[in-house]
């Protein structure tokens, strides 16, 4: 057991050395005695410590009370006081390889590492040279104490991830706490690895994929509004707080989340202010701005996601429904429950083919079942497309594909595959030239008959 702890400490030391090479040390460590003499720092430490303990005891429903003597000194809540099981531990961290820097924020730094089984994970720890630490050290002059304050944020996030079990929340694989490790990586969260959410890239994807992102966000917000901890607000609601894991949206930064709704004495105390709008919320009899967390999340979803991703190149048949969603969420005329229902209505219409009634279009094509065309026709492109080097779209049926091809004079063929998108629509390639045919039972080739008069695009 002692040997394992030594190896864990060595592994964490290596991570610390890597971080130090990325972020040169700019602070001088001050004696802990300075912290004891700094009454303001001590008060803030005590307040955050009590908040963290209260958070664990009430929100994580810890069955065993934490002894008072433990509460006084411990920096991290021991795992025996937690309910959620851990998959990865410090032992797994010993064998991490291929460390690489992913990014850093106000409080934390994120690394990428590979486990012994070859799986890549994200490693999140306190950013010793981040702005949070810099501002704290500038104010209090005590690096060690400031690191403890920053650690509470990471511990809060770990606690949240242990109880918030939803596909839209990044998965916590485990955590490691080694008291003898350098302060920057004394606490390490081991998380599911995702890729950054790039809005510019999303705007270049087909509408169906952009709708998927918004739909997954709405489902996440519905969960947060009805979570086991009550209604949770993401106070730092930005696209950079989200990642994509296998194409699905997940929130990855939770240290600024809160389940507390603002206190109030009168309605004006509940004003929900944004750069472009301010919303009025009624102060409840309990002295809380009830519903403000849900409204904050929903309006942020509207201004950061819906505005850019929903209307752009949307199918004509869906535009009235989407415009209703934009109007209602942009003015907060509906809550998250009605927003979920509105998205479900859009999804139903889209999956049903949007009143597909173009079967007669297929009369203009010869069908070759069990074949596909070898290669991609780069001379015929459409946008947005699943393949930027050609024209690859999703269709509800062959009739819809024929309608698209007929409306474009350069389109001469389309190839429907058995591969489907998340809504069940068929991935279909459109080409200008007839390429070499290859036998493949998962495809069907539709060739426009000679002499066919194309419709004008409109």
Structural write-up:
The radius of gyration is 27 Å and the shape is globular. 36% of the residues lie in helices and 20% in strands. The strands form five sheets. Strands 1-2-3-5-4 form a five-stranded antiparallel sheet, with helices on both faces. A five-stranded antiparallel sheet has the order 13-17-15-16-14, with helices on one face. It contains 13 helices and 17 strands. It folds into three domains: 2-191, Phosphorylase Kinase, domain 1; 196-351, Transferase(Phosphotransferase), domain 1 (Orthogonal Bundle); 359-448, Hepatocyte Growth Factor, CATH 3.50.4. It has 458 residues and is of the alpha+beta class. Strand 2 and strand 3 (120-126) form a beta hairpin.
